[in-house]
Design goal:
Blueprint: E1 4-7, H1 11-22, E2 31-34, H2 38-48, E3 51-53, H3 56-62, E4 65-68, H4 75-81, E5 89-92, H5 99-105, E6 110-115, E7 125-131, H6 137-148, E8 151-155, H7 161-169, H8 171-188, H9 193-214, H10 218-225, H11 231-242, H12 244-264
Parallel strand pairs: 1-2, 1-4, 2-3, 4-5, 5-6, 7-8
Antiparallel strand pairs: 6-7
This protein binds 1,4-dihydronicotinamide adenine dinucleotide (NAI) and (2S)-3,4-dihydro-2H-pyrrole-2-carboxylic acid (A1CAB).
(2S)-3,4-dihydro-2H-pyrrole-2-carboxylic acid (A1CAB) binds next to helix 7.
Length: about 260
Amino acid sequence: MVQLGIIGGGVMAEAILSRILAENIYSGSQVRVSEPRSERRQELVDRYGVEVTGNNRDVAEATEMVLLAIKPQVFGKIATELSGVRLPLLVSILAGVPISKLEAGFPDRGVIRVMPNAPAIVGAGMSAIASGSHTTPAQLEQAKTLLSAVGEVVEVPETLMDAVTGVSGSGPAFVALTIEALSDGGVAAGLPRAIATQLAVQTVLGTAQMIQETGLHPGELKDRVTSPGGTTIAGVRQLELGGLRSALMEAVLAAYERSQDLGRG
Ligand SMILES: NC(=O)C1=CN([C@@H]2O[C@H](COP(=O)(O)OP(=O)(O)OC[C@H]3O[C@@H](n4cnc5c(N)ncnc54)[C@H](O)[C@@H]3O)[C@@H](O)[C@H]2O)C=CC1
Ligand SMILES: O=C(O)[C@@H]1CCC=N1
């Protein structure tokens, strides 16, 4: 029997789908996806052996839980198309779109708003989750089980969801730019590209793991690396001159504000 429906078979849908199948949360026969592009439909069938249709109602009508993975700009169209469908639980990953709007589009249904992130594809995702007004504790658990397959899950009040989007939703792009820039610096200093990227990736991964496992404050870690009169403090000085911290803070705030705008649109 089909249990999970996914509306919109794009990048994030595939990240989540690939993990839930790999983790045996659902089998391929329990998942149905809807996607308007025929070549993409075929791709998903070939890669995951799930049923993929061009008809959103086929997904919404036949499944216990629907993961909405379309762009926020398409939400109004989908809500109109699915009006009257008695889907039991809607889990939305749409940036910005508030629970009030999801519930207006799908009245009296269990609604859960989630902000996952791209590392979900390797099981290292970070998802924040907020319940709607008709969501039952069992439905919340159902959504948490699904998201646990793609990484960590934290429950937050809905009011914090746009801020979450700025940090962990958009954050992988900010970190990827940082890794690329560290690698570029290495190449500028004479390293071959492959080695420079390996060093940059492992340094970011190792630093994150160290902070996560030791609970060390990031400032304390920085202090441990900076020898008096040494190489690191020379680099830190340049980062402060270049406004790294301010640039990252402004990037998070810009993404937060854009998430708020998307909800109003
Ligand atoms: N990409 C990311 O890292 C993250 C994305 N999100 C959210 O996930 C959602 C999807 O984002 P992506 O996967 O990046 O976008 P995407 O563009 O890769 O996927 C959207 C999919 O929806 C399909 N689609 C378009 N119109 C449709 C319709 N009428 N009915 C059904 N499907 C339709 C598109 O063909 C496409 O495959 C967005 O709302 C975004 O805010 C949330 C967290 C992270
Ligand atoms: O850029 C976006 O709008 C989506 C939401 C968070 C990450 N990607």
